[in-house]
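Task 17 of the worksheet. Students: predict the tertiary structure of the chain below and write it out as structure tokens. Keep your answer in the requested format; marks are given for formatting as well as content.
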Amino acid sequence: MARVLVIDDDEEHRLLARTMLEGAGHQVEEAHDGEDGLRRFGRNRPDIVLTDINMPGVDGHEVISALKVLHADVPIIAISGGGVVGKDELLLQAARLGAAEVIMKPFEYQQLLGAVGRALRM
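Model answer:
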């Protein structure tokens, strides 16, 4: 299965994603924000990245932009629950930046695993 890096400042969402992905046989590494995620990516390049958009400091759009410049071949799934700007707009922006898939929070098991499967086949 795949090595997945989950970047999210919300511990509950990281745990939910980890539980779902590990239940499907994936190896998961967690990062608590964008800066931590980019650092962990550099140390142990994953097969796929799942990143939240709204995070303090380095947000998900910046993560996507940085990874697409340096590692364009690594698929990225963007997730968002919204914020000041609606989640639809945040996810549309993520897709424009190069996210292979976009998911709205809260997500379900089949939704997450389907997105991971499609992104890995790209």
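Marker's comment: The chain has a mean pLDDT of 92. Strands lie at 3-7, 27-31, 48-52, 76-80, 101-104.
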